Amino acid sequence: MKALYLTPVLIASFGLATLRSAPLAESQRIDQLLRQDWDKAGLKPNPPASDEVLVRRLYLDIVGRIPTVEESRAYLSSKDPEKRIKLIDTLLASDGHTSHMFNYWADVLRLTDNVKGRITAEAYEEWLKKQVKDNTPYDQMVKNLLTTEGGVWDSGSIGFWQRDENKLDHLAYTVQVFLGTSIVCAQCHNHPFDKWSQMDYYHMAAFTYGMDTKGRGFEFKPTAAKVEEIDRKKLKSMSKEEQKAYKARIEAQKKEAESRVSREDMQQVKRAMQDVMKPLRYTSAEWQDSRLPSLPSDYKYPDAKPGAKIEPKTMFGHDAVAQPGQTRLQAFADWMTSPENPRFTTVIANRMWKKAFGIGLIEPVDEMTDSTVASNPALMDYLSQLMVEKKYSLKSFLRVLYNTDAYQRAATTHEVPAGELYHFTGPILRRMSAEQIWDSFVTLSKGNVDDTIDDDNTRLHQYLDDLATFLGTVKSKGAEGLVQIAKEGRAKIEDNQKKIEAKKARLDELKAKGEDVSDEIKALAKEASSLRKSSEKDILVALLGKERASDLRQGYKPEKPGGNSKPEIDRKALEAMTSEQRKEFLKAYKKGGGKDAMGLTARASEQPSPARPGTFLRTFGQSDRELIQNASDDASVPQALTLLNGPAAEVLSSPASKLSQALAASGSAADKVNTLYLALLSRQPTAAEKSILDGVIRERGDKAVADVAHALITGSQFLFVQ
């Protein structure tokens, strides 16, 4: 076989179109500022990108996948002069954009469902997708994250606080993500490379330290059912004097209730229900305004003593002063998200610029200092102003960037060294993220599945409803009702415990005599566990009734990504297949996927978050979510092997895949190769490539199609965003 050489993407240029002026005034202003910078630097912009390059880039940048064959053909054949801006608007409004931006924010916020509070983590992911889909203004989304509290059944946003048990660590991540400032070093000592002191760190931590995530949503205190709960919404509308009187009245009611139920009784409740309440762990966040951080025992600076309580104070900008009815956390959220904050707006504008162009005006994006200067200060100032004008709508902001003349230019192919100024003569060439590669293979296998990413997780919500009902029932029973249930349950528990202890004592005697009782010990442990679960069930049934108690005891079992859906049968494609292909297709259909061994039924945003080590996504560099934006685009041998020999290659030849159906519908081997190019690269082969491909087809016949497929999916042209 002759070697198959493909024209490198780094030097290819196909059908360059004449660019129209940017359709948006804001886009034109950005281009003007860039041109001024080019003139000063003596540079010219990159040549215009072709329609073929641009359609693929827009799909990858906005919805995180390559376009389908039909989507590419529709764009390339369109004569509409407004087709580019219309495509941008369509993609930004699509569910695919929700999926793609969820992946982005999952990396930034370090979302992971591999935590103790799995239910809360999944509800957090669903909440974030809804924020992206609804285009919630960024400042409001951040404010919601910072000030959320209650149970996960109230809002999945409490997952933001559940992410880190150590609230001092949580503050460092919060400041780095939203203010672009790395202060983590100052947690243990004065920052060696910035002005922040350890005292500054604890002053900032005082704003957020009061968030308690260890509670189970219910305190076993001797209170009656009729005791009024503090209504935090009411508190917000009250003056400080009214708040004081309101809290005093609630406290008086509680003390009166305590006189009717002893603490000993409530301890009995706590012991009886300790297993029953386990599902409520890691499901709530509650603000405690009185909690303040203390300096560590090894604090060594002269401005305070170890163990001292620290009051809140901002590190820079104006003070965060609590208004009447506000907690200090709410004041902190208002301060952080204010347009007057010197870093909040700049950071998100810079993040979105990097999202579109591949490199920020400020690099790194989250290590800003007082001496930081953007590569184009005038442009950075304008982008910050634009973000405020767009009222922090990220879709509106990105729409402006994608409509600039600069974004339409061919990609810059040379690497920009760290510290070197880049003048944005076009976007930079980037390798696809792991999620973009996965989602592109999903597209090749299943077509456009974007509209499936925002389906509500019905099972999750059913379970959250069960938890909320359970907690509400516990509260409604009040102390007196719980004591009665606990006494009945405790009596059975103690009776069971006596039986277990008697059997254990007997086994100890036999063991002391040298007899082998290992099997009996295992049986006893199993019996003890069974009796404990039986007692737990009895208490749950007494609280909820048999049916809901059973649902709660079964726990939450998430559905597998993609469910059990089978590939859709395309009748026309089926008719075009040979009898052997048709046989393979129907066999795969009955199995629900056949050779689709990667589970290419759902986008990356619907997979475990993050994927488990050793899986396709992690092999291609998906973040482990331990650090902020910890993904990698480095090449590796396992990646090459996966593309050459793994299920990614197999699915290209599966009769159930959309690509195989498109190839089956094509005529000659040359037609099939053209289809491959359109599916994988959104273009046809160049004249130079055709002359090489014609020779390969003459020598290899139909086998040349598989050769070309392997060459394309392992090549830079497929794996890179041009």
Automatic annotation (TrEMBL):
Residues 29-208 form the DUF1549 domain. Residues 238-267, 490-527 form a coiled coil. It holds the Pfam family PSCyt2. Residues 331-694 form the DUF1553 domain. The keyword Cytoplasm does not apply. The keyword Transferase does not apply. Transmembrane segments: none annotated. Keywords: Coiled coil. This is DUF1549 domain-containing protein.
